[in-house]
Amino acid sequence: MIEETKNMIQKHGIIGLGVAVLIGALIFQILLSVILSVLGKSPEYSSIINYFILTGNKTLFRPWTIFTYALIYPLSLQGLIGLLVDCMFFWSFGGMFMQLWGQERLRKYLIIMIPFLGICGAVLSLIMGNQLVYTAAPVIMAVVFSISFLTPDYPVSLWGVVQMKMVFFAFVALLIEFISWGASATGILILLGGLCGYLFTLQMKKGNDLTEIVFDAFRNLFQKKNRKGKFTVTVNPFEKKEEDTVISQEEIDEILDKISLSGYQSLTRQQKEKLEKFSGKRKTDN
After folding, report:
1. Residue at which a domain ends, from 154, 186, 210
2. Domain range spanning residue 36?
3. Residue 171 sits in the same domain as residue 49
4. If we measure between CA atoms, which residue out of 26, 146, 163 comes closest to residue 84?
5. What 3-state class would DSSP assign to 3?
6. In this structure, which of 12, 23, 57, 69 has its CB flanked by the most CB atoms within 10 Å?
7. Does residue 226 fall inside a structural domain?
8. How many CB atoms lie within 10 A of CB 13?
């Protein structure tokens, strides 16, 4: 079983890893429940699992819950069905996301969406009387809606019976998820996840890659921190330095690798400028 899991992750990348982590988290919950039952400490199960669930007034003291909330499902038939449905949605729509926008962008999208929706969930929990917030459904709806509004007219089949446009299927999926949780903090967070997916694609169509914008912002923030405390040297501002005009082949290879992996739109403004300068230089040399 471990070998099969490794093969799935290697073959399907971030999609296989995501499904494996969700199933693994459920197995952990089941084992924990069984062990506590054998030890006669079943009531302690909830108190332990709550350390991984979002609760508004405890989020500051349990900051990891803005990530771990997405791993927890109820130990019930409803929870098992919910997990299977979420894995199916993630496998299908996540696969399309990866094919159209690349695995690297999907990875960054998930890294951003999980904590962002976690913070939103903590706020909703606080507003709604510290309700418990958990399940990966909000994040998965963000993936479903991002792809559905990119190719809204693409035909999909609902359980092999009803065929409909992808955008309609997305709303059906959202309705199913919302009904299963009701008008709770988790249910509202699921709706918010769908909205985030729509807004992401809306910006992508305008040429704004939010994943790169966020990652560049953090990258620049840490670069500024690293520069603090260092001595500066004043140079002639009108003197053009050699290293400003020279673009190494290694930089160009990295840019071309990024294009092949995630497409031209994934490049930052600086990378696009470097590629244009390099192309102009090659034309001049020839």
Report:
1. 210
2. 2-210
3. yes
4. 26
5. helix
6. 69
7. no
8. 17
